[in-house]
Structure formats: C-alpha cells, structure tokens
Amino acid sequence: MEKDADGFYTPASATADAEPSATPSDSNAPQVEDDKTDLIKSTFEVSVTLADQQRDKDSPLYSVKTFEELGLHQDLLKGIYDMGFSKPSKIQERALPLLLSNPPQNMIGQSQSGTGKTAAFVLTMLSRVDFSKNKPQAICLAPSRELARQIMSVVVAMGKFTSVQTEYAIKDNLPKNATNVTAQIVVGTPGTMTDLIRRKVVDVSEVKVFVLDEADNMLDQDGLGEQTLRVKNMLPRGTQVQIILFSATFPDHVRNFANKFAPNANKIELKRNELSVDNIRQFYMDCRNEEHKYDVLVSLYHLLTIGQSIIFCQHRHTADRISQRMTAEGHKVASLHGAKDASERDNIIDGFREGRDKVLITTNVIARGIDILQVNMVVNYDLPLLNERPGSNKDDARPDIETYIHRIGRTGRFGRKGISVNFVHDKRTWAQMEQIEQATGKQIVRIETNDLDEMETQMKKAMK
Ligand SMILES: Nc1ncnc2c1ncn2[C@@H]1O[C@H](COP(=O)(O)OP(=O)(O)OP(=O)(O)O)[C@@H](O)[C@H]1O
C-alpha cells in the first residue's frame, strides 16, 4: 500500500480491480453546467453561494471523474442524477472504486464534514444487494435516530429506480410483534439493531455489507463501542462481510480499534490540519458570565433567522431552559435532545428540515451527520467537552475537538458558506477555545458582543 502525493493511502491494484456492473452510459446525465459558479438566490436576506463546489482543485469536492467511469448499474446512475449529482466528490471518486471492487474489501474512509461520504456508502450497499432476495443483505448503523432516518432518505432517493426494500432498526418503529424483516437494507442505531437481530426479526445470515457511519463515535469504548461490537459479533462468520467505516474524524485512540474492527481495510485518511473545511468561518464572542451568554444569544436572534441555525448546549436541561425562556419572550425556537420521545424527535427534526423552524436548540445528539443545506450558522452556546470523570476537577475539563469539528460541520455543507460562533465567558472556556484553535489549526476571530451593527456586518461578510 502506498501513500500518494496528497497523503492518501491507496493500494496500487485496487482501482484496477474495479469491476463494472453496468454498461456506462451518459444518457441520464443532468443538464448541469459544472464549470459555472452557481449562485442560488435564497429567499433570505443573505444569498447562499454554491461556489462551484467542484471547481477548486484543492477542494475536497473536486473531481475530474464521472459517475459513469465507476461502472455503476443504470438504475443507480439514474438515481444519482435524479438527486442532482453531476460528478463524484473527491471522497466519492477515491472511495467508490475501492468500495465496489471485487472481491469486496474493507474500508476506513475519512473526509471532511459535508463532502459526500453518505452517497459513497449508500451506493455501495445498493450495488451489492440482490433485489430479488427478500432478506437483509446490508446493514448500516448510525449514532442517532435522526441520522439513521437521514441515511435512509438517501438510500430511498438513490434507490428510487431499483426495487430496493428498506427497514429501520430504530426505537419505536417496528411493531413489538414484528417478525422477519424482508428488506434488503436495514438502517438503524446499535441498541435496536442488536435487539432485532437477537430476536431474529432481522436475520443476518445473508448480510454482505456492514457500514458504520460516524465510525469513530460508533467504536468509541466510552460511547457506543460495546453495542456496535455486539452487532458485529452476530454477523455471519466464515463468509466475507465487507466492513465500511466512515467519519470526518478518527482520533488516535479509536484508530487502533478501527483497524481491528475492519482488518486489512483500504484507508483514506486526512491530515490533522485538514480536518475541517475552510468555507466555515469561525468566530467567538466574549460574554461576561452565563447570564450574559443568554442575552447575547437573544441579541443574535435576527441573525440566527436569516438562514437557519443550530445552537449547541452541553446539557439537555440547558437546551430546555433557554428554549423555554426564548419562547416565553416571543421568539420562535425549537429544541431537540435525547430525553424527548421518538415521535416528538421526528416531528422536531422534520419541522427544522422543512424550514418551519429556523432556530434549533440542541445537544450533541445531532452534532454528527445531520445535513440541512440551509443551516448557515452554528452557535456553540457551550463548548463541547470530553466526558468529565467522576471526581475530576471541573477546571481541568478538556474540549472535545472531534465533537467541535462535527458540530461546526452542520453548516458549510458541500462547499456552501457557513459561520460558527463560540461563546466564551471565563478563563476556563477561553483556554478551552484556545486548545480547539490549536488542535484544528484554524483561526477563530473575535466578534464584539456590544456592537450589534458591527457584528451583523462581519457575519454577513463571512456568509457572502
Ligand atoms: N457528488 C455530489 N454532487 C453534488 N452534491 C453532493 C454529491 N455528493 C453529496 N452531495 C451532497 O452533499 C451534501 C453533504 O453530503 P453528506 O451528508 O454525505 O456529507 P458527509 O461527508 O457524510 O458529512 P458528515 O461528515 O457531516 O456526515 C448532501 O446534501 C449531499 O446530497
């Protein structure tokens, strides 16, 4: 395996091995002019620039190749073009030949947030399953029901011209007495998936593809690692299951486990200073204390609603408290966290996705993967912190760099502009923000809290 000029690892033989499954054709290609910078005039005050996402050679979205060259099945090509994709992004261009080659090989793939990882693994699942067999053949796990539902929407959209059948493995979705899932692709969260496999509702004997989205989170022993391993241990042994791990981040402590979990995998890796995209401008605001954070947030309300925005808090009770207070003061905001019940969570995220709500106050539950193109602002009301160990000194709390990268990645999707704003209010949060700045290698610029006009000007400039 060799590292190429860009620092990516690619086995020399892998691309050559790719076996086309359909005759290439361009008859379905959409009438999109790729070379033009595409300015989508938004109905909001600020226009969202769709800088031709794939033009800049250094951009993670750049690609010279076409989907045809990947030798995908006609029905899948149709699905891709129907979604408005004209060319593969860089991660898709690099990962797809490896993912689709035969015999199937494992993959550990890393690429910045919003660069199209989902399409890469969804296409792999769709091209490997046999639609004439009514049994699960590909399973995909994600850390939240919101993300599982979003992945499923991509499976359904991309598989629109196939006869694929799908099923969820998320809480409260299947009736208690459900038996025997016949869908070929099952997407869910690890707890429910384990339960359904154990109860033989999901028969995994024919599974050939196992995908972990947000894989570093799914494998982290402090998080979902144990449950994810349980699912893997129930998959058929002896036969080859292709294991696919994708994330924007793979911290060192998870990388070793990932290598064991997906042995002999092809790897696409990012360098430390490439972890986040440059189209997200990062700011911070000096607040005097906790109460002042609330006042500053309220003063930002107008800006928050120019497009859509997500406010991240460390705890559920903070999300509840500030959303109740803002609502009582006449502002329209929604709040979402893991303590709400399943149907309420679905309604809230759907309302936000459809633009009925413009401001979503939440916790880390949707820090990862959620793809809502209109989100042009993320506020870290509380900076993300690593889990505090019992008895540890609060002042020593370290920032959670990975969660930070994922949180700000909810904006700036696929080359769009976005801004993130961190609230700092004391020495400790200051120090934490400095650590984030150092770790990501990206500048975080100060914005005045007491000069609203200047603040608005700066922010609008960043969004243009
Ligand atoms: N080839 C393509 N052409 C145009 N748009 C694309 C293409 N591939 C993906 N997209 C769009 O880019 C957006 C981001 O893709 P996706 O959600 O897969 O990102 P991601 O890399 O999984 O991000 P995250 O790390 O945050 O999970 C989506 O809206 C998707 O529809």
UniProtKB/TrEMBL annotation:
Residues 65-93 form the DEAD-box RNA helicase Q domain. One of its GO terms (molecular function) is RNA helicase activity. PROSITE patterns: DEAD_ATP_HELICASE, HELICASE_ATP_BIND_1, HELICASE_CTER, Q_MOTIF. Keywords: ATP-binding, Helicase, Hydrolase, Nucleotide-binding, RNA-binding. It is an enzyme of class 3 (hydrolase). Residues 98-268 form the Helicase ATP-binding domain. Residues 279-463 form the Helicase C-terminal domain. It catalyses: ATP + H2O = ADP + phosphate + H(+). It comes from the Eukaryota. CDD domains: DEADc_DDX19_DDX25, SF2_C_DEAD. InterPro entries: DEAD/DEAH_box_helicase_dom, Helicase_ATP-bd, Helicase_C-like, P-loop_NTPase, RNA-helicase_DEAD-box_CS, RNA_helicase_DEAD_Q_motif. Its EC number is 3.6.4.13. Residues 1-38 are annotated as: Disordered. A motif (Q motif) lies at residues 65-93. Belongs to the DEAD box helicase family. This is RNA helicase. It comes from Antrodiella citrinella. The lineage of its organism: Eukaryota, Fungi, Dikarya, Basidiomycota, Agaricomycotina.
